[in-house]
Amino acid sequence: MGVRVQKMLGYGLSDIKFKRGKIVDPRINKAGIVGLNESDFDAAEEEYSVDRWRAFLSDRYDRVKKSSSNKSSEFELRLYLECEREWAAKTSPASVWSPEDCIYVGAPGQRILLLTPPEMLRGNKKDWRRYDDSMDWLDEYLDHKSAPRVRDLRWQPLSPYWSWIDDRTGKRVRNPDNYAYATDDVAEEWSTGNADRHSSADRKHYAAIAQSIGFSDMDDVRKHMVPEIPLSLRLFCEFGQIFTSEKLVFALRPMLVVSWL
What we know:
Blueprint: E1 5-13, E2 18-19, E3 22-23, H1 33-39, H2 41-47, H3 50-66, H4 72-90, E4 103-105, E5 113-115, E6 129-131, H5 134-144, E7 149-152, E8 164-166, H6 176-191, H7 200-212, H8 218-224, E9 225-227, H9 231-239, E10 253-260
Antiparallel strand pairs: 1-5, 1-6, 1-10, 2-3, 4-5, 7-10, 8-9
């Protein structure tokens, strides 16, 4: 049992397959930053360095800047990359942040892979990953007796990333007012499996809400409407070649992970 607590927010998978302490999950690319880090840490550090992360973003920025598209997705990407360029200009590559900081592989028995957006681990935003905090220690020890734990935040978007997506396509859910109503008043109850107790009229009413936000019914909402994966984290997964398929990034879910070191 450790004596120092570490609390981490991010987006992860809680069913990673391990064998003898190593990841053997077919979803994880062995040549990517996660897989390579387990077999050859030095090679992973060189291949996926801060310099290469910045070069990756710079290349993406140049491509987006040349685009004449006015799509909101490209505007968002351009805005994020401009913010990254500004941050890079103010800091040296040898700063305290490195790409490996965004990755947490769970303690034995946890089966966790947690990924944290790069911008939430820098400057005054390091509270997404806290270590040896006295209040955290007291809270965790009194309530959980120094036990490592994972809290699934399936229905809780993490601030400041408030949007929702369809995990089959990665597209944002439309009509914010309607989906807020659906999630706040209905979807959490649907997630517990209590949908069958509703009347036929209720189910039609909720189905109409679901259809207004791009789903067939509330069961479809329950299965496929998930908190958005931040743009920066999607880019990070692409840069780090973390998954064997690009669409696997949409399988990530918000979660809180507590470990003791």
